[in-house]
Amino acid sequence: VQTWINRGEIPPSVEMTAAFIELIIRDEQFGHHHSHKELRLMYAMAIVRFVNGLVDREQKGKFAKSIQVLARSMGLPTWFVDLRHASTHERLPSLIVLRDGAMQAVAWLHDHYWVRNLKSTEQKQMLQHNPEIKVKLNQYKDCRKTFIKEKYNDPTPYVTCIQSLVELMNDDVIHQEIIPLLLGVGGLVPTSKKKRASAEHMQISKGLIELWTPLIQGLDDGFPDFGQQLVSCMIDKLDAKDDFEINQVLLNPYAAFATKDGAEDVTKAPSYLLTL
Prior knowledge:
- The chain has 276 residues and is mostly helical.
- It is 69% helix and 0% strand.
- Helix 3 packs across helix 5 (78-89) and helix 8 (131-149) runs antiparallel to helix 9.
């Protein structure tokens, strides 16, 4: 888990699990090196961050909801909220209570995060071929184009498509379905090369921006890490080994005759990379 953390951004539940496990192991093996109060403070901090990290992600809308309400909505026992409140505003709970709280927090993360996300290979393969996501993305695209063509008449159809996608979203769906489809040809990058950016005209068309902006904003509002994950995957597409391919084809006028745009992997084509 620590290696995963060092590689970059990770889901908050993974970081919380690592923090609790590290603390529990340190307490068991080296607890005698810390004072009673130090251990209570460490456990209290871990529990406060655990509760805050979970409920803050659920805080949506114009009006803030209480932590108790948010905790109940996500199946988090209110006992954790009470323990967080005591650790923050009152006298620190006893070490026995805090240790028990840490163990129960790990159990809750196991049941509500790890079990749900550590799917078998077969399940992941089923997700990769789930047609519903692609259908809804195509529906959004059609509805949004109609909205623009009819001079901004009724946004309800494409907004409904966005809401339907948000309801289906989780970490697996984002990484295995939505982002690959958006970064595929026909997604954010048009199928027609005439609509893509070029060396002579590096700007993306206004129509392309107008088409996809509501979807990206809507998905990011519904799943706050989405935008960051999308940008990260876009950067991975534009890694260093693609620089030579872009420069060779675009800057050398004769290279274009030797290298066909998108001959094998269409996502390595210069027009695709420039548009992305």
